[in-house]
Amino acid sequence: MALVKDILETMEYGPAPEAAAEVLAWLKARRRFGHFIDGGFTAAGKTFAIDNPATGENLAEVTQGTAADVAAAVAAARAAQPAWAALPGHERAKWLYALARHVQKRDRFLAVLEVLDNGKPIREARDIDVPLVSRHFYHHAGWAEMLADEFPDAVPVGVCGQIIPWNFPLLMLAWKIAPALAAGNTVVLKPAEYTPLSALAFAEICAEVGLPPGVVNIVTGDGETGAALVAAPVDKIAFTGSTEVGRIIRRATAGTGKKLTLELGGKSPFIVFADADLDAAVEGVVDAIWFNQGQVCCAGSRILVAEAAEADFTARLTARLGKLRLGDPLDKCTDIGAIVHPVQLARIRDLVAQGQAAGAQLVQAECQLPAKGSFFAPGFMTGVHPANPVAVEEIFGPVATLTSFRTLDEAVELANNTRYGLAASIWTENISLALDIAARVKAGVIWVNATNLFDAGAGFGGMRESGFGREGGREGMAEYLKLPEPKPQPEAAPTRLDAAPLPGTPAAPGIDRTAKIYIGGAQKRPDGGYSYAVNAGSTHLGLAPLGNRKDIRNAVEAAHKAAGWGKATGHNRAQVLYFIAENLSARAAEFAARLASAGGDAAEVEASIRRLFYYAAQADKFDGAVHATKSAHVTLAMPEPFGVMGIACPNAAPLLGFVSLVAPAIAMGNRVVAIPAQSMPFAATDLYQVFDTSDLPGGVVNIITGARDELAKTLAQHDDVAAMWYCGSAEGGAMVEAESAGNLKATWTLRNRDWQGPGAQGPRFLARATQVKNIWVPYGE
């Protein structure tokens, strides 16, 4: 037996296991789990095994969900939803409060169950995950209470299908279920195949508190069960998981009208500047990458270190690596637990081997791996070329890459050298430097001198191929609500584009027969040539430019070169919009006459001027928020422009429809490639001179005329277009959503509406033109 004096000499930790008897007894009593549908558990069907990743021992059997099981759960949720939504917010708040209290009462039980199921250290489950679960239900009880005041006119989406991963099984459940219930929705949730046990324990809590049947339904199973839920008649899909599956879901939901939130993979940069507190940064690496086995999509798996600090930082990191304790996840002294499943362990090993084959060197902890279970010794890789597989692919394991940089610009370039954009961590004692880099890094969440901070009061979500939509905070609540849509209006018949004029049908007087496309602030001949534009009355309107794929490419390049527009202040953008309105007003009679001669509504001109004034007014007023989250931090929620957006305008209201979509996009700092109404493209081409005389920088608005859906398809497929709006047919909207899956750009498909009526302008257009970046900044003590 070790003596105290000997322990004080060696400072070795003795075992400090968390008791698991109660959880094991709970599992033994149930053994085989069915689904939780309509307030009760079904009989177990065909089952699959759930094993402890740290020992390989079997914990339970859970039912493989079928399409029929999913259908039953969706039917129960659909039946329960009207009554749940009809409850006063205060009543829903009481239910959420009850769930929060019951989670707190069982916090140690749930933490141990999570460890047995997932393999993460008990310290993480006990001190981080489970407290955040109850925090989410408390926080969203508050949203339910104040919903009518904070979201006037909003209504619940309906029935929500939710699919969660295995890295934070119970926390992800709370992250999705709490806002859905607060908003008046009902849910069908599918937990990860590897880690369904805490979700089933939560189902028992729902039954225990007496939650109305059908409000929460949980169906277990693998990817086939998830696919059945995506295909089911639900109103929203909220998915957290891999980017590859996110693409599949985007295509599967295209054209269905289902609201979609995707929180996908990441390859997050961990940027350490020379003036950083290097010891604190090293501990940040421990917390972000090693403490939770790197099984966090936002973990800073790419460490970028200033060259001046590289040697010192690497030495400290290596020394700290040697002190980490790997082993039994239930031991309170364990730093590194088990990998969730042998399949994931094999993937980690394969990626590390690929990285080494490509020239990287692995610095790994020298530790004895347990004889049983799925374990991988933590480490980091040096000598990593930017194209090395370990620098590109999400490892999802306790392995990071370490690369140096010399200049601030190089740091930003390396940080953004990824198709993802989920999170980033910045380490420096210079707050001005930190905020400068935070603004330039393309990620949905930025931590300054911290990492992996989460709170129900702050939004979380990514940019680029890390998905779209937000969870948590006000942004997350908005994802589970919808505003009434204006009554759809019939689409105007598109103008016929003929190769030659019909005999005896001269062009309408006063129309420019030689219009051009507009790229980078200049009129250019279209690569696709011209065609006669013919209206429904067979009157030739003039020569319409026929833009094609090459024209779209050139327009996107011009839009990227105008990046300074997004850096301009809202006041400066407002001035330009006011100037456009002023110059359009000066030529109002001319525009009205041309619209009338082509069969349009001359009243569109004055309505367009008013709309420009509205978005000019909003340009410096639609701003962010400061979230109340964890102590010693202030969390800034900053709405940022997407960058380059594609916009396909409606055939109806050729001038006003164009202005109604382009104005909010550029007011928020985006640059656009717009496809004007095919029914009257000259209404947009007439704006060229207005733009040229209004100080609008070249490239901010680019206009490509031609066949709308063909051009929209090219824009939707373009990897350098970050967002896409489409107003047109249902078929065209489905096409845009499906084709956008390539780079998972955010899309908004609108049906035609009365562009002079309610719902044709407002904050919803501005919100759709931005993505929120949450920046966690140290504040106070």
Distance from first to last alpha carbon: 43 Å
**Which regions are unreliable across 5 or more consecutive residues at pLDDT < 50?**
502-512
Strand content: 15-25%
Mean pLDDT: 91
Quaternary organisation of the protein chains = single chain
Written description of the protein model:
With 781 residues, the protein is of the alpha/beta class. The chain folds into three domains: 21-264, 3-Layer(aba) Sandwich (Aldehyde Dehydrogenase, Chain A, domain 1), CATH 3.40.605; 269-461, Aldehyde Dehydrogenase, Chain A, domain 2; 548-772, Aldehyde Dehydrogenase, Chain A, domain 1, CATH 3.40.605. The protein has 28 helices and 33 strands. The strands form eight sheets. A ten-stranded mixed β-sheet has the order 14-15-16-13-12-17-18-33-27-26, sandwiched between helices. The radius of gyration is 28 Å and the shape is globular. Mean pLDDT is 91; it is low at 502-512.
Short structural summary:
The chain is α/β, with parallel strands linked by helices. It folds into three domains: about 20-265, Aldehyde Dehydrogenase, Chain A, domain 1 (3-Layer(aba) Sandwich); about 270-460, Aldehyde Dehydrogenase, Chain A, domain 2 (3-Layer(aba) Sandwich), CATH 3.40.309.10; about 550-770, Aldehyde Dehydrogenase, Chain A, domain 1 (3-Layer(aba) Sandwich).
